[in-house]
Amino acid sequence: MNALPATAVARASDCDVLVIGGGPAGSTAAALLAERGYRVTLLEKTHHPRFHIGESLLPANLPLLDKLGVADAVKAIGMEKWGAEFVSPWHGHKQSFEFAEAMDKSMPMAYQVRRSEFDEILIRNAGRKNARVVEGCQVQDVSFLPGNTGATVKAHHEDGCIETVRARFVMDASGRDTFLANRLKAKHRNPRHNSAAIYAHFSGARRNTGKAAGNISLYWFEHGWFWFIPLADGATSVGVVTWPYYLKTRRHKPLAQFFQETIALCKPLQQRLEHARLASPVEGTANFSYACDRTHGDNYLLLGDAYTFIDPVFSSGVLLAMQSAFAGADAVETCLRNPRQAAAALKQFDSTMRVGPREFSWFIYRVTNPTLRNMFMNPRDYFRVKQALLSVLAGDLYGKTPIRVPLLIFKGFYFAASLLHPGRTLSAWRARRHNIRDVDETGAMVN
Ligand SMILES: Cc1cc2nc3c(=O)[nH]c(=O)nc-3n(C[C@H](O)[C@H](O)[C@H](O)COP(=O)(O)OP(=O)(O)OC[C@H]3O[C@@H](n4cnc5c(N)ncnc54)[C@H](O)[C@@H]3O)c2cc1C
Hints:
Layout: E1 10-20, H1 24-35, E2 40-44, H2 61-68, H3 71-77, E3 79-81, E4 83-87, E5 94-98, E6 110-112, H4 115-128, E7 132-135, E8 137-144, E9 151-157, E10 162-172, H5 179-184, E11 187-189, E12 196-203, E13 216-221, E14 224-230, E15 235-242, H6 244-248, H7 255-263, H8 267-272, E16 277-278, E17 283-285, E18 290-292, E19 296-297, E20 300-302, E21 308-309, H9 317-337, H10 342-366, H11 370-377, H12 385-393, H13 404-420, H14 422-436
Parallel strand pairs: 1-2, 1-10, 2-7, 4-13, 10-20
Antiparallel strand pairs: 3-6, 4-5, 8-9, 9-10, 11-18, 12-15, 12-16, 12-17, 13-14, 14-15, 18-21, 19-20
Helix pairs in contact: 1-4, 1-9, 9-10, 12-13
The structure holds flavin-adenine dinucleotide.
The site of flavin-adenine dinucleotide (FAD) has 41 residues, from helix 1, strand 2, strand 8, strand 12 and helix 9.
């Protein structure tokens, strides 16, 4: 532990579970465990409401929101999202998908949400369930105690006070800050993926009409893809996900100018933004594809982005974060209540944590591949493969929906189509290797 500055006020507390971070993962875990009677302390370094990127939820989020008791609150701030639209410059048409066509017909829609509002609903819910929620308090150090007896966590309040918390269990939900993984040197860059994003909110963007007004649109372009996410208050979140080599072409341009020039490379998106104005600062983030070499250790778990993040293309981040919190709450409860079953509970947690990244990454790594793009733009439902694909897009990975066999068939079609077009396959493989290579992007994301 570091020595305290001479002027700092010290405070001590104890709890059963200390949660680092009040995003979707941390607030969900804190609410669930507090509801079950555990003394939970959640420390969040910022104050809600605060901006966060990642506004598009999946249908599989809705049952989780229901279980947390916040479904109505989210409905009140959400824009209904019934499906997704894909737009490709290499095809003469748009392709729309509706979640209602997935295998499980009971999850036909989701919401687009302003994350400042959504995350605030979740953290206030944790407080209402009797978790001790402290905002403006950054966790700075953790020491695990010998003999599996818990941890001592040191946190810095913004009034200068340093609090030492003794906890039986620590849940790291610090998002892409990856607080624990950094300290444990457990975080690794994803060797199979490498992209960066630039994004902003616009007002006055042209929306689809009727039921499709809230659908997410994805636009492929030469250097990656764009998202277009309509929000309930009239704003639209627009972002580009691109490869490091393209980002490097920005050089010293202001980020906002580079973003507008990039949008201009995608005509159908540019047309929808013809009368739109920027309604937020333009922001960027790079190097966001990583994983940790473990999901847990003695007396700690890693939740949501604190464990892994791959890519935003299928809007899966919030679902995986909340799902990890549900699985994590069960595992922690077993560890605290019945330590003899801890190993089995943690093993179960570990395998749940790997489901989402495994299923989504297969599609993420191939989504800019021409063969997969063709399959998305011309979907066929032989052997229910389209329904299974929609179930994945809905995030329906954790229940009993029988997606396994149709997904295997889908992948079989993909490999067969790749073999039938060896030239295209080889050049796509080469392009991908070129795209994900690391380039020196130092300073590329600085405004
Ligand atoms: C460009 C981009 C677009 C995305 N689009 C989508 C999308 O459309 N849909 C979707 O579902 N997902 C999307 N995501 C992913 C999504 O934003 C994340 O997966 C999700 O927010 C993860 O939730 P979390 O609770 O794990 O982490 P976070 O939401 O990041 O929350 C972590 C919290 O921990 C706090 N914190 C960090 N360190 C400390 C500390 N030391 N002490 C105290 N507090 C701390 C932070 O302030 C933060 O509030 C996107 C991601 C990116 C990069």
